[in-house]
Structure prediction request, 775 residues.
Amino acid sequence: MDLAFSEEQEMLWKSARDFLANKCPKTLVREMEEDEQGYSPELWKEMAELGWLGLPFPEKYEGGGFSFLDLIVLLEEMGRACLPGPFLSTVVLGGLPILEWGREEQKQYFLPKICKGEAILTLALTEPSARYDAASIRTSATPEGDDYLISGTKLFVPDAHIADWIICVTRTAETANPEEGITLFLVDAKSPGISTFVLRTIAGDKQCELTLEKVRVPRGNILGQLGQGWEMVKRIMEWAALAKSAEMVGGDQQVMEMTVNYAKERIQFDRPIGSFQIIQHYLADMSIDVDSARVSLYKAAWMLSEGLPCTNEISVIKGWISEAYRRVAAQAHQIHGAIGFTKDHDLELYFRRAKAGELFFGDADFHREVVAQQLGL
Amino acid sequence: MDFRFTEEEEAFRKEVRDFIQEVLQEVLPSDWQGVDPGPEEEAREEVYQLAVEIWRKLAAKGWIGLGWPKEYGGQEDLAKDWILKEELIYRGVPGMDMAVVQGDLILQFGTEEQKRRFIPPIAHGEVKYAIGMSEPNVGSELFALQLRAVEEADCFVLNGQKTWTTGFQHADWCVLYARTDPNAPKKSLGISVFLIDPKSPGITMRQITQMTGLAPFYEVFYDNVRVPKENLLGEKNGGRAIAMYAFGIERSYGLVVLHNARRYFEQLVQYCKETYTNGQPLAKDPVIRNRLAEMAIEIEVGRNLGDRLNWMTSQEILTVLPSCQIKVHGANVAQRVASLGMQILGPYGQLDEKSKWAKLGGRMKHTYLSSVALSMAGGTSEISRNIIAGRFGLGLPS
Prediction:
């Protein structure tokens, strides 16, 4: 057993922490919440130059050839910095499925563009039912000549408003088993019939309503096999849940550190409030939430990187961090007192993101159901 | 990063599992539900007899003190030592003994002569140990202890009282913390540690029965008990360091507690799969599924914390923080498993183990009652949180 970072991971997190401390101040984070695009194209370009956008892709597609575990190290720092923008959407929701199931020409077309920061991608999965189940996929793709026509409404699609390409989860056949007859398409976001509307959300991230009206997509843009999409969606959801967990662990850790520092500095009754035992015990419990989450994150990510079955481990961490981050952020507010819930203070950024993260790709109840299935219940 | 155990460790785990299988078939009754580790359940005579038998089998395997130096019969392998403990605890096999932990203290602080005298009998599974720390007025504040040891020409003379001395009735030795200097500038600087023969003249004891119905603890009275000078462990007035070391070992007790709770939890899961209400198994009830999964997650993240603790120990990284975290988390988990189990069993949960109607051998009731102690034993959860917050953890001011 060796639970230390490799030298490369050590370098990655250090450079990520330094870079984001410089380039992603909280002023930018707040500005981007209000910004129509919600990301900084200059920063995006710099991230491409650093090799971040290509991190998990093989070198032959101009990527870095790093593992999912390495990607997790980077995502943790992004969560700590509240980095706004379509990184998770492009790399995890867009790039990894293409790498896994794309035909060679699809990989050669998309992956270098992703690595170079020339294409923003996302996944359009959920619909107005707002559930992550196969039966909720009502958006239809109907064959017409060599093309398919896609129609339907997708909701809570991250970063669709700035995406160049959208992997759209559609229904190509009505069958008794809702998990059959689902197909993924690579859709050019500039296709006629597509409209996006940015929703205003708790974390000020950019989730969209995506309307597709008879959007024409060539048959060649099918990703993977016709009708076999749900198995792919399940895998993507695991990657996404794990990636989001990493951001959440990073945010959780930052909230913890901010609060410990505040408790050391804030004087009341002539002493730092961190000297009061009740505050110490709140913080002790918070540290258990944070540290247990981080090691559980690494375990799941390590298993995924090693190609080991890890459905259970991914749901353990997403189920746990969804509640732990919320608990830690709420307790951090209590310790900060009134200053923490003002717009001037950073803490509120994390409190809102804790909730958004919880809702992203399965909340704690969703993942507990997965764990229940894994227990054979 | 690599969460795998080495091939050698995996091979050892298999060997331990085979050993347990053998013990389950040869020594333990066929309806064995498992017992909690340590001396608590050894207060039942039948469990005690099994524990002694298995303890000797472990000795015959050379598995007692696996983490100890080779010259004292160990293999200097902490990973194996933990694998053995984890498997025994998880399967609820009795036989783990506090003697090993006290052996750690002797190896750390004893003279060469003491090591040669006290360690081999532990390694051979021949002796049992008790610990004398708490007193009627001394719980979390150990260094306030009052039991007096006065040095005379050839011995120390002990007077005073201990309480919560575990397993004293079976012990061959008791590691006793006593005050040798009542005028020391700080309370913690006047304490010494002795190895006491519980059969020494002047010692009397009284059983304390707990709400489980078991009586693993004793009040022990010392009336002019004479201890030879060669039984002083470490320096005179040097007990503080020994106590701190012992606390460090005890805090990984949280992991022991967690793995014990896993067994109860898995029995509960099995029960929910097999028990039908309204024509369907309890396991199909969405509320029960949710709560069992919640528990499974808490256990799993605790195990991951445990992996981290064991790895840090192997790297000789300071483990004060993670061991206290696990102490708090493990006790929480054990109490929550017990509480959930009692809720799911409903009215059956309250039945005595011997009732013909009892479910899961009545063990859920036992753990519901016994797990109350787990947030106190080996240092209260509050003391653990103080330590997490303090200079070896979050660095909060005092």
